[in-house]
Amino acid sequence: MELTDEHLDTLAGLAIEVPSWAYGNSGTRFKVFATPGVPRDPFEKIDDAACVHALTGLAPSVALHIPWDQVDDVDALTRHAAERGVRIGTINSNTFQDDIYKLGSLCHPDAGVRKAAVEHHLACIDVMTATGSSDLKIWLADGTNYPGQDDLRARQDRLTEGLATIYAALAPHQRLVLEYKFFEPAFYHTDVPDWGTSLTHCLALGERARVCLDTGHHAPGTNIEFIVMQLLRLGRLGSFDFNSRFYADDDLIVGAADPFQLFRILAEVVRGGGLEADSGVVFMLDQCHNIEGKIPGQIRSVLNVVEMLARVLCLDTAALAEAQRRGDVLGANQILMDAFYTDVRPRLAQWRTERGLPADPMAAFLASGYQERIERERVGGVQAGWGA
Amino acid sequence: MELTDEHLDTLAGLAIEVPSWAYGNSGTRFKVFATPGVPRDPFEKIDDAACVHALTGLAPSVALHIPWDQVDDVDALTRHAAERGVRIGTINSNTFQDDIYKLGSLCHPDAGVRKAAVEHHLACIDVMTATGSSDLKIWLADGTNYPGQDDLRARQDRLTEGLATIYAALAPHQRLVLEYKFFEPAFYHTDVPDWGTSLTHCLALGERARVCLDTGHHAPGTNIEFIVMQLLRLGRLGSFDFNSRFYADDDLIVGAADPFQLFRILAEVVRGGGLEADSGVVFMLDQCHNIEGKIPGQIRSVLNVVEMLARVLCLDTAALAEAQRRGDVLGANQILMDAFYTDVRPRLAQWRTERGLPADPMAAFLASGYQERIERERVGGVQAGWGA
Amino acid sequence: MELTDEHLDTLAGLAIEVPSWAYGNSGTRFKVFATPGVPRDPFEKIDDAACVHALTGLAPSVALHIPWDQVDDVDALTRHAAERGVRIGTINSNTFQDDIYKLGSLCHPDAGVRKAAVEHHLACIDVMTATGSSDLKIWLADGTNYPGQDDLRARQDRLTEGLATIYAALAPHQRLVLEYKFFEPAFYHTDVPDWGTSLTHCLALGERARVCLDTGHHAPGTNIEFIVMQLLRLGRLGSFDFNSRFYADDDLIVGAADPFQLFRILAEVVRGGGLEADSGVVFMLDQCHNIEGKIPGQIRSVLNVVEMLARVLCLDTAALAEAQRRGDVLGANQILMDAFYTDVRPRLAQWRTERGLPADPMAAFLASGYQERIERERVGGVQAGWGA
Amino acid sequence: MELTDEHLDTLAGLAIEVPSWAYGNSGTRFKVFATPGVPRDPFEKIDDAACVHALTGLAPSVALHIPWDQVDDVDALTRHAAERGVRIGTINSNTFQDDIYKLGSLCHPDAGVRKAAVEHHLACIDVMTATGSSDLKIWLADGTNYPGQDDLRARQDRLTEGLATIYAALAPHQRLVLEYKFFEPAFYHTDVPDWGTSLTHCLALGERARVCLDTGHHAPGTNIEFIVMQLLRLGRLGSFDFNSRFYADDDLIVGAADPFQLFRILAEVVRGGGLEADSGVVFMLDQCHNIEGKIPGQIRSVLNVVEMLARVLCLDTAALAEAQRRGDVLGANQILMDAFYTDVRPRLAQWRTERGLPADPMAAFLASGYQERIERERVGGVQAGWGA
């Protein structure tokens, strides 16, 4: 099947949330390489995010990370975003960089540290309220490095208590989204290591607690699309953190490592209603452009998602269902592969032109002079990174 | 700390369930090597299991696998077990060897196949009732080999429906235990691949549905003791299938591949109350003795569990809690390691003697002439294996 | 870039070797499902392989497995192949199904067993000479299941000795190809677990010893195209065993699990001269069609390889080299992805028509009545499988 | 078997090399937590290393990392070490933190960068000559993050050329030790990803090129002791970087994650002659004490190695060989496990006392006041870490 106008209408409704931190410097424990033109503050990050949206038309919101994106005047930042044509999205908390969090935050053995971690989240909710953001995303770096270091079960109980306090502070239109991660930075155990644990806590919290699925946070070989299916089926998929990986949490550009996996994930999203307006599923990027350009990295990511979604829409679902019904293993697989191998790029380029966007957003960016300008203008100050 | 009399009393209450099929032939897709003396029928399997219990005093029950252990007269088999000093334990269903199950059983696209699979489980419940068994264990080989082959979500819905029918047929004192498995024999997706999926179904079924944790059924690197902790915390750990692995579902002798992992798992069992009489946790072995002796393989397994549990009991939990409380990473870890490195073997040998058991059950078996006798007597007929 | 006539000339030279055993039954340790129409002897396997070649024009040779394909009259089998338009390719030895090989073959602690294993290989060389085959492929199931079971180093020394004897028996135009495998059927250690070990033995043997790379025989996450590159660079890549996997040695259809990985592998093949006439690289399939049709499974595999190779040929290598030279990370990656996403299928269909072949070999097979005929005719006898 | 006096004599010859950087701060990409008392310069690192040696008697040398340990007066540092009772060991190069190395060093597409990387190594050789160090250890962070980013094969050729230049500059008594790593910081491919690649380069270089095996640098499930065996067999094992891991390159304390794996590795060391005086195998630690104390972390590591080696020495090798010879799978395994489960700690404590060392080096350190003193004295300046 080919891309139809109806498919393109569906794609027009796609909103990919970009992370403010993707525009800052990032790296590995071995080295963070600095990049010319990198933003010095949240306002400049918003500018870069707005540039990506202007070129792709598909990235209307920007996730913030507190305290990396803490500003004195939140309203000014919110207005700045609006003026640039984007809005503030998910607010991400951070309880892994203050010295008190060395052995954990919400799961820490010390009640004082847990209290500080809860209060940080309450402050994040204030930012949500000020910015109009509806999602509080919690990724915890909590865990241990050595067996015996702490009591796994007591930590779960502490977590339950902390999350309940935070959840209770949300306004009725706000949600808590709990992310899980297989490992790193903790190397023996992670307090929310898998979707089962995240779901367990969400069920205990209430209806507005959802699971965040980061595509890089699983054990080797995990069938991620199965989890997508299951969470959609249970009505508990809150958001994606899209990226890709060959090994661990590599945070590479989404679709770069295993494009067919991205196809299968998006096929389950469509199958499970995740694209529908009321699904409540947020499509966020969470990546590190360690060695490639930050803005180009984000443009590429947005394009990868929309192109792959277009391939999914080309799937002949009626023929597929029929092949599945009759147990035609190879026939059904072939129908799926036919969609994957469809070259949707020319039609999408044309569609962009029809929408007043550049046919080739990457070429348009490179020709725009934007990068040269920020490298020229953003001199002095401290480049944004994970530490600030 | 050393093993105390109180610890030994705790160990005396340990009951390890052995699987009938461990005494039959098993192998890989490449070859099943036959072993002299292997049982030809369920009665002879019971004999071998009784031999293991007689030597160790810790293996009082035998799990059956239907139809491998189907007999004309179930009562006779039950009596045979009682006469040999053991009893029938968990009943395991099998919906992966009939030709109709090529594309699944409870999740199959065809309603007729699903019906047959449900009926097989109802027949298993009849066996439970006849034998006095309280647990129906369901491990499904259901899954697909190729993306698109079937609809992942529809299969979950079919599974929900089939399990509900089976669960409804249980007597009030009977339980359904749902096992999960990462992969194999299906190579793209498995319908119950992880504890989260198993738990989800158990929650939907009711209080008497529990999760079975097979220690070989996880992705590489999975922290299994965390799952043990979580399921105990949620009151949903139904049983263990103990074995060990270096790579996939290798089904080696429990404790053979990574003894420290077994220690950590058992430490969470004790921590979470899994040893207590009312915990409802069944300790079962599920192994394949492909190249080693079957009965010695089971003796070794039983000994490995009890020895490791003894090491866990040596743990100075008060000192550990105190070290954890003060955030003493290395101190806490050292307390755990000290228990692991304690040599409990001499005291356990003495304890066995005190209980009227051989100090060295393996040596006693080798000296007993049992193996020579069954090799001599079990001539003719068809050796038991996975196919019969 | 698009597929050019020159590219198509290159593709016309492609020769994919099919394995005789792909047409027989296969399965897992849990169950081998029988398929109607499966060959009863090597002659019928050749018939099916010839059918695949007739429809695709790209599968002119058939690998045999001894003793599965042992026949009284090898010359008759060779002639039968020629009459059907194919020829006998690689001869694969088998030292894992005789009872004496329970603890190994060339690495076995017992000299008598090692001698038998060597002699089996000498018999295989006789078959090679009779069939005109130039490659002896050795995959050893040798290994151990438990630490301490045998002496890892002594086994290497025994292996060295056995291989040397076999190598010495080869005619000057014959080669020894040594396959490695990460695990299975041995679950603690494998005697040739990785390409480094295989290479080490090949270097010790001589120029006509090469490494066989089975794409399913690596640890999770292994960068297989790197190994392809390295072996081509060292002049020691002897052959591929193509298949695909999500977890372990799943033996799924090549290109089914991670198409982009197949693309990268083939890109390194082209880059390293592996397509050139004198490269000595054999492209073999080694798969198990457990639940899908055997002949369709082979047709799909052949098509997947040629389609992916066509995408590789679309790569703009000049532009890629230039982007790499200037350190343009995303630009270089994009050039690669552009080739991967090129839809080569229509041009290949046309090309097949130009060559007098069906545009759609799969549809042609389904319409041919071949399957119905063999299901009708192949009644009685014993279906071929791994055991015979 | 028990530890004999002969065994203790063997252990007395053990020399574990500690890394200077273990005493500085380290962490993950998320956070480097600072620790009070951490050294500000290489002299203070030597002091801490000397403390570990004074307490254990088994850590007589310190590996340096250039430029982290670059000092104006190398002779002064060498004398400082001698005065503290230790000596300078392996010199580790570093080509991953200068901005020019963003896309590689010895494998970089730009000849100028490659030249700089070679020159850095020549400067390291100068340090070796000045300090009397005999080993230049090269771990390259070189690799790529995205397929197509660079030419895998051209990078190998550049690597070959660079290594040859460096090797040629070594004095006749100096060695080049080439480390391999599965992934990180590069996330698509690593230029020296496995032992096969490292060995290939060593063979091309000459007799004094050896492989460095870091126990954390392998794919999940890799049988590391097999590689140890193979490299010893080939005479190419140059050194260990000991640490342990649950997931990736976690750099935890050696023996902490899987003690039985450490046992098996050391058993192959002993089996292969790696403990003998002329083996040329260097036993180095390479760890990150991110959340635990640095000096206690090193003490624990040294003790773990010696304790595990003591268990290995308890192995009844004659009985093992006999059990292996007769194919007694479980018997042989049991002999191995018996050694592993032997409690060697009391005898080792006594042995330390006999040698004039504290029976419990960890308790002695904690009681010594050393930590309190350095926390008091090391105020001001910049704490050492990976960046300086």
TrEMBL record, chains A, B, C, D:
This is L-rhamnose isomerase. It comes from Propioniciclava flava. Keywords: Isomerase, Manganese, Metal-binding. Residues 72-226 form the Xylose isomerase-like TIM barrel domain. GO terms for molecular function: L-rhamnose isomerase activity; metal ion binding. It holds the Pfam family AP_endonuc_2. GO terms for biological process: L-lyxose metabolic process; rhamnose catabolic process. The keyword Endoplasmic reticulum does not apply.
